[in-house]
Amino acid sequence: MKLRSIWTESLRNIGSGTSHAISLALAFLIIATLLGGYGASTVIAMQGEAQERIATLGDTDAIMGGTVDGVTCDQLSKLHHSTIQQSGALSAKADLIEMKATPGSQVQSFTVSPGMIELVASASGKGGDQTVDTSGTWASQSVAEEFGLTTGSIIQTTQGEERIAGIYDWPNDGRDTKLGFALLMPHPASQNDYGECWARQWPHSDRTSELLYSTIADADPQNPSGILPVNRTLSSNYDANNSYLKRDTAFMPVIALAIGCFIGVVAVRSRRLEYAGALHSGQTKASQIAGIGIEVTI
């Protein structure tokens, strides 16, 4: 048979319903949609879990114990080929300062490195491509609401005058609560001894977190250094990459292909008498296979 004749015969089979093309295509479309939808919903749920962990600082670790070198801590985020996005140092203990405008009202204040301000600002959805102001004090949202503070406000305290350079959010979502009602006072990383170093990284890696040990300048035998998650309510065994690779729906494309092949086999076997009659009438196998290929393609 000529190619034109094969093409015409295939179109005639589809148009007359002999090949059941519409019903078979509809069946495959429904199955593919169900499998694809289930696979997509699984991936979307995993993305939501990852976004929640990032938003609640589930991607942040802190080393505590001993004296932290602020310069080394801030430089962790500048390492090449590292997943650490922000890092910063924090004083081990908070100082209590009193607002002169409201005598008796005390607020915790922490001495922090510039990198810590950038980390906190990033966790609040600030920073990014914009430069974070590390020249003044940062107040938590709770402190700002309590004392009516905004960016640029000047406050008088028992320790002197402070300018509010920024406001950061610190919700109660499982993260370390000590910064929830506090003032962060940035100091040069090289001019202060710190008690903690925080590092925010994505994707999270325990091996990368071990770099925090390099920030310890003076170990304390009575208080050994250790790495802890900033948000301890989340599982520490979470691995985004491994979860994606081992998801239940990873083999959905293979399953869809197998079902498609099964539908094709059923479609061919349901017309075996027709095909046998065509061969008996003189149609070549090559022409018959070409016709089946055209019908499947269309």
UniProtKB/TrEMBL annotation:
Keyword Transmembrane helix: yes
Superkingdom of this protein's organism: Bacteria
Keyword vocabulary terms for this entry: Membrane, Transmembrane, Transmembrane helix
Membrane-crossing segments per the record: 21-40, 250-268
Listed name of the protein: Uncharacterized protein
Taxonomic source organism: Bifidobacterium dolichotidis
